[in-house]
Amino acid sequence: MLEAITAPIKRVRLGISAAASGPFKHVDYPLANSFDHMGDPGLHGPGSVSWRVIGDVATFIGGIRGLMIQAAHPEVVAGVGDHSRYREDPLGRLSRTSAYVTATSFGAMAEVDEAVETVKRIHKRVSGVSERGVPYEASDPGFSAWVHNALTDSFLVANQIYGRERLSPDDADRFVKEQTRVGALLGSDPMPATADDLSAWITEHPDAAPSQAMREAIDFLRNPPLDPSIKPAYLILQAAAVATIPARIRSILGVSALPGAIQVGRASIGALRWAMGSSPSWKVALFRTGAEIPDGLFKQPLPIDPPT
Questions:
Q1: Where do the domains of the chain lie?
Q2: Which of 219, 267, 261 has its CA nearest to residue 243?
Q3: Under DSSP, is residue 66 helix (H, G, I), strand (E, B) or coil?
Q4: Taking Cα atoms as reference points, which of 219, 224, 207 lies closest to residue 254?
Q5: How far is it, in rounded angstroms, from Cα 240 to Cα 251?
Q6: CB-based contact 294:39 (threshold 8 Å)
C-alpha cells in the first residue's frame, strides 16, 4: 500500500529533477575525477558559506540574474555577442558556464585550476571594439570584474530572497569574500569584499549603459529556444530574477518587474527544492573531503561512483 502511494510521488520528483537539470548536461561533468583527490577541500571547503549558497536550487535564479546584469555592460556584452555561439548553441554555453561554477565552487584544486585555465584560454581570443567605440578584451581586469561581481551578487541576492535560509549579514559578507578567491584566479579587479559594497558597485557602476548587443542578449534570455516542457518554468524563474535586479539596472536593460513575481518564484523554487534537494556536486565535495553529509539535504544520487 505504501509503495502504491510513494512510487508516483517518486516519479514526479524524478521527472522534475530530470527536466530542470537536463539543460546543464551538454558538456562533460566537471567533477568526474573528483574522487582522485580525496581530502582536497578546493577553494572553499566544508565550512564555507559558498557551498551552502551555491549548493541550493536558488542558484537557478541567481544564474539568470547574473547573465542579465552582465549584459548591461556594453563592452562585456559586445564580447559575448561577437565571440560567443550562444544563439546557435545556447544549451552548450549554459552548460559550460554551469560547469565552470560547479568546478570552482565544489572541485578539488586540480579541477578548479583546469576550469580557470580553460576560461583564460578562451578569453585570450576575445577582443574587439564595442558599438560605442571602446576597445575590449575579455582578460581586462575591469571587464572580468563586472562578470565575476555580477554573478557573485546575483547568487547572494537569489539566496537571500529564494534560498533555503537567509544568511546573516556576517555570513553574507563571508560569501562575498570567499568568492573573491575565484575572481582573483582570473585577475578580476576590483572585487568589493562586503555584500553592501558589492551591491553598490553593481548598482552605481558608471559604465553600465544600453546597447544593441544588450538588447539582443536580453531578448534571447526572455525567450530562449528551450524545450516546450520546461519553457514555462524557465519564464517563471526569469521573471523572479528580474524582480530582484536594482531599478537602475532594470531601466538600462529595458525590463520590468512583474507583480507577484517574487511570490511565484519562491513557490517554484520550493517545488524544485522538494524534487531535487541540494546540488549533488555539493554532496561530491562533502564526500571527497570526508565531511558529514546532512540527512535530508540531498535527494539525488552521487553523479560519480564513490571510491571502493
A1: 2-27+46-289
A2: 261
A3: helix
A4: 219
A5: 16
A6: no
